[in-house]
Amino acid sequence: MPKISAERKQERRAEIIAAAMRCFGRTGYQRTSMADIIAESGLSAGAIYGYFAGKQELLEAVAGTVLGERIAEIGVESDGGIAPRSPRELALMTIRGLRQIPTLPLLVQTWGEAVTDPVLRILVGRLFPEVRQVFVRSMTRWRRAQPDPAPADPEEWAEGMALLIVGLVQGAAVQSALLEDFDAERYLRAIGDTLPG
Questions:
Q1: How far is CA 132 from CA 8, 140, 174, in A?
Q2: Highest mean pLDDT: which range of 95-99, 100-104, 138-142, 161-165
Q3: Does the model's pTM come out above 0.85?
Q4: Residues in contact with 74: Cβ distance below 8 Å, sequence separation at least 6, in sequence order
Q5: Counting C-beta atoms within 10 Å of the first and last residue's C-beta, which end of the chain has fewer, N or C?
Q6: Which residue segments constitute the domains of the chain, with CATH numbers given?
Q7: How far apart are CA 106 and CA 112, in angstroms?
């Protein structure tokens, strides 16, 4: 039997994650079975289980993919290779990016289920700090570059702003997923009028 190249393995893994994402987005995490994901992918059970032990690992991969895309979009590395973004820019960019993903209701659902599911709570508890730290790194650099007097500790200031931005992003996500009449543009304008930058 011929060996599969590393590139093909990555492609196959991405195909499985995409199939899981479609299933979770359509019927939710709890109502999706591994059989659903196997059927959606068009692969054999053996092929799926060769990459993922089960539905929980797939949810983690889906969440990691979605958040990884957002982190990449923000474009901030701890070494400071890209110009830092202000709190306003980070909030607006992240919310606009999240609203474009078809699985936004799945993210909201995952947050809700994490309240009572200890395994999901661990997953969410691990991924959110990663996103927050990306914000903190960017805003710390942004604050230090401002001509007006910086706070005594720009990183502490940035950590507080990151908590606020995560809350604003979650608020936009929940309202987008649940309310048909959510006025996203008005929400974004209010953020633009409120946050510095």
A1: 33, 12, 18
A2: 161-165
A3: no
A4: 85, 90, 93, 94, 134, 135, 138
A5: N
A6: 56-194 (1.10.357)
A7: 10
